[in-house]
């Protein structure tokens, strides 16, 4: 099974990807993680092409596609993958379709986490991070220090309303074409509207499972 997860920063994509990866016994493919692994290994054949990230530059589509294609050879993807943070453009989506087609596979499901502006702002503005273990907490739980590390939680510097709205608008602009690409593809397209900030990750996961059943995916 191959799943693409779409959603803006703060939509809970990473959490849902982990849950779905366990539920379907498929690998969670995060391009961020794959790129970090390469940056930690100077002998990796793609290292020279990926290290532009350190200069604050973006890795080209071609290189990202290569990173994903190599990554998919790892044993944890033998039953499939859930893609988180990739593809970001229709060109990347087309490249991914070709990679999978070469293996006799295809994207089966696209899950679009459509989180409203208000929910994102509530979640991200309330987000506190442990500087050591990087765990994220929401201030509604009333914690001031990390229960594991016993050090004070901090707000991320880029979590202010203006930056959040800008990232959200950029995300919407860029993603519209990708949404169209997948709506016109054979994959089952599931859009979840998340407009209530009190919805938990478990609620969202239950709805995803329910919708997958309705579409006979599981
Ligand atoms: Zn901690």
Strands side by side in the biggest sheet: 2-3-1-4-8
Q: Quickly give the structural class.
A: alpha/beta
Q: Uncertain runs with pLDDT below 50, 5 residues or more?
A: none
Any idea what the radius of gyration is?
18 Å
Domains (count) = 1
The kinds of small molecule bound in this structure are: zinc ion
Question: Which CATH class applies here?
Answer: Alpha Beta
Total E-strand runs: 8
Give me the CATH fold name: Rossmann fold
Helix content: 40-55%
Q: Biggest sheet: strands, sense, closure? A: 5 strands, parallel
Beta-strand portion reads 15-25%
Task: Kindly report the name of the CATH homologous superfamily.
Answer: P-loop containing nucleotide triphosphate hydrolases
Number of DSSP helices? 8
Summarize the structure in words:
This protein has helices at 13-24, 31-39, 47-50, 61-71, 90-102, 117-125, 161-183, 201-214, and strands spanning 2-6, 27-30, 81-84, 109-115, 127-129, 136-138, 154-155, 188-194. It is an alpha/beta fold and 218 residues long. It has a single domain (2-214), classed as 3-Layer(aba) Sandwich (Rossmann fold). The longest helix has 23 residues, at 161-183. It starts with a strand and ends with a helix. The relative contact order is 0.17. Zinc ion (ZN) binds at residues 130, 132-133, 135, 146, 148-149.
């Amino acid at each position: 099974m191959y799943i693409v997860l779409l959603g803006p920063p703060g939509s809970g994509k990473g959490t849902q990807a982990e849950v779905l990866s366990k539920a379907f016994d498929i690998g969670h493919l995060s391009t961020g993680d794959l790129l970090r692994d390469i940056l930690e290994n100077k002998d990796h054949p793609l290292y020279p092409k990926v290290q532009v990230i350190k200069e604050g530059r973006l890795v080209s589509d071609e290189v990202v596609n290569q990173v994903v294609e190599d990554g998919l050879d790892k044993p944890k993807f033998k039953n499939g993958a859930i893609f988180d943070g990739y593809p970001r453009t229709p060109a990347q989506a087309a490249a991914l379709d070709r990679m999978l087609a070469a293996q006799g596979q295809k994207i089966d499901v696209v899950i679009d986490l459509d989180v409203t502006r208000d929910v994102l702002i509530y979640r991200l503005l309330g987000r506190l991070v442990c500087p050591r273990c990087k765990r994220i907490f929401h201030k509604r739980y009333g914690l001031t220090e990390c229960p594991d590390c016993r050090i004070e939680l901090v707000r991320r510097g880029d979590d202010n309303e203006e930056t959040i709205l800008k990232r959200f608008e950029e995300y919407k602009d860029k993603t519209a074409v990708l949404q169209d690409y997948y709506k016109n593809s054979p994959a089952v397209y599931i859009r979840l509207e998340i407009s209530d900030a009190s919805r938990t990750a478990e609620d969202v996961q239950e709805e995803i499972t329910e919708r997958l059943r309705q579409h006979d995916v599981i």
